[in-house]
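quick one before i forget lol
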Amino acid sequence: MWWAATTVLCAPQSLLRQTAPQHVVRALADLVSRGVLATDTAVSLYRLLIGLLIAALIGIPTGLLIGLSRTAERAANPLVAFLRMISPLSWTPITVAVFGIGSQPVIFLIAVAAVWPVLLGTVAGVHAIDPGYLHVARSLHASRVEQLTAVVLPAVRVQVQNGLRLALGIAWVVLVPAEMLGVRSGLGYQILNARDQLDYASVVAVIAVIGALGYLLDLAARLLLAPRRSPQR
């Protein structure tokens, strides 16, 4: 179907003829042989991981605070509801003005996009804890730190893992358009660069690589972050 749509059904002068499978495969081989694809993939993955790390370092503690404190929850709910509905890419002009050109704006946009699933997943996990567990811990004179480490953190682990997996998908989607804005490396930049040269075969080749990497990242997240089931007795 791909070959028919881009070869048989397209007009001879159409640029879509460049996106036929045979041309895309050659473009992909050329990107690999020149080392461009490996370099830009490594840069994109670096930005993704740093952005996710920042989102986790902010989202998990903040989610615990909001979930455990009713006062903090009442104060933070309007702000969270307001900020999380703003598109991360709308922060681009301010981000570039603050951080300049380079990886920092991209990492910031990834962190802004990924922090909300982590934060909300943590809050949901805290709210799902059976209050009886906390009552028992308090009756045994457990300190707040002991309650946190012995009751809260084990109980919210699954929700935090689900939030991180969801954040990974959102961050990967935001990464590509963020790399089209004032950077000279990364997979998003390669799409923009190939488009400017009217090299649509390379555009589709990089898109295919982005889809394949996204699938592999989600598969890795499922394997690493999936909740472990206890063996049946």
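fyi The chain is about 75% helix and 0% strand.
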